[in-house]
């Protein structure tokens, strides 16, 4: 048995729909600029390839949780998206084999410090400050692929205080899910427990303390989170 000098952090995990088992999360990969309409609203070039970045696993927030309004921002944005959970992986996965590595799907939010993203983009700086902060990755329960089939369509919706802000379909992804898995595996060895946020559609916007966010993708368990007071 390994003797740790300090208490190790708990294993990050997600609930699984209809099961007492948990899905252990190893890494959170994120895909930016993957819907044309969102690229246009961000004043970016739709010809550019989507951006790959990561969030720490301990940034997860579960369904029903509260997200403290984060430090170091005055422009806190939601980005609702489909999340893919992997049961296996490897390097250089062919697109034709990619779906065989999928454990299931969930609804997620890529919470963003938008003011600092603008500065990072302007100066060509890394995105960690804008994307990879505490409680920046709310993700709902995982629904097994056996219960959904391989997903290629389905409405992505987000409501803030009951008002619809985002409404699109995953069929509009620029990089499809098989392509995302294949491309990621060229750069990283994917493994069981990895999850992938596949990109957000148009309609992103700011939230404030007290806002309630309801996120859904057809066929999956919906997720609701609340924006709390300023982080201590």
UniProtKB/TrEMBL annotation:
Gene3D superfamilies this protein is in?
A: Fumarylacetoacetase-like, C-terminal domain (3.90.850.10)
Q: Which GO terms describe its molecular function?
A: acetylpyruvate hydrolase activity; metal ion binding
Q: Which PANTHER family match?
A: ACYLPYRUVASE, FLUTATHIONE S-TRANSFERASE
Keywords, A to Z?
Answer: Hydrolase, Metal-binding, Pyruvate
Origin, by domain of life?
Bacteria
Q: What is this protein's record name?
A: Fumarylpyruvate hydrolase
Occurrences of domain Fumarylacetoacetase-like C-terminal (ranges): 28-226
Report the source organism: Roseicyclus mahoneyensis
């Amino acid at each position: 048995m390994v003797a740790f000098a300090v208490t190790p952090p708990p294993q990050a995990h997600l609930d699984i729909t209809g099961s007492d088992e948990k899905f252990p999360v190893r890494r959170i990969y994120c895909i930016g600029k993957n819907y044309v309409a969102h690229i246009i609203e961000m004043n970016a070039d739709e010809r550019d390839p989507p951006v790959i970045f990561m969030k720490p696993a301990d940034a997860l927030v579960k369904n029903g949780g509260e997200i403290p309004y984060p430090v170091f921002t005055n422009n806190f944005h939601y980005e609702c998206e489909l999340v893919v959970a992997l049961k296996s992986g490897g390097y250089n996965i062919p697109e034709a084999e990619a779906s065989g590595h999928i454990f299931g799907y969930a609804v997620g939010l890529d919470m963003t410090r938008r003011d600092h993203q603008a500065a990072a983009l302007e100066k060509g700086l890394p995105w960690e400050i804008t994307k990879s902060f505490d409680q920046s990755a709310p993700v709902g329960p995982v629904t097994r692929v056996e219960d959904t089939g391989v997903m290629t369509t389905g409405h992505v919706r987000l409501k803030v205080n009951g008002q619809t802000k985002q409404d699109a379909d995953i069929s509009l992804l620029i990089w499809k899910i098989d392509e995302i898995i294949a491309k990621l595996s060229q750069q990283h060895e994917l493994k069981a427990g990895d999850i992938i946020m596949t990109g957000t559609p148009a309609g992103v916007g700011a939230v404030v303390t007290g806002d309630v966010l309801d996120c859904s993708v057809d066929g999956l368990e919906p997720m609701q989170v609340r924006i709390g007071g300023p982080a201590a």
